[in-house]
Amino acid sequence: MFGLNKKIHKSVRNESIVEVTETNGIRSLHLGSVTVQSSMKVKAPFALELAYTRGMMGFLLFSNAVKNVLTIGLGGGSVPKYIWQNCPDISQTIIEINPQTINIARSHFAMPANDARLNVIEGDGLVYLADNPNSADCLMIDAFDAHGIPSDFCSQDFFDICALTLTKNGIFAINLWGSDKNFDVYLQRIERSFNNQTLMLPTGKPGNIVVFGFKNNSLEHSPDLKITNLREHAKKLESHHQIEFLSFIDKLCDHNSHNNKQFFWNTLDRFVLPK
Question: Pairing between strand 6-13 and 16-23?
Answer without folding.
Answer: antiparallel
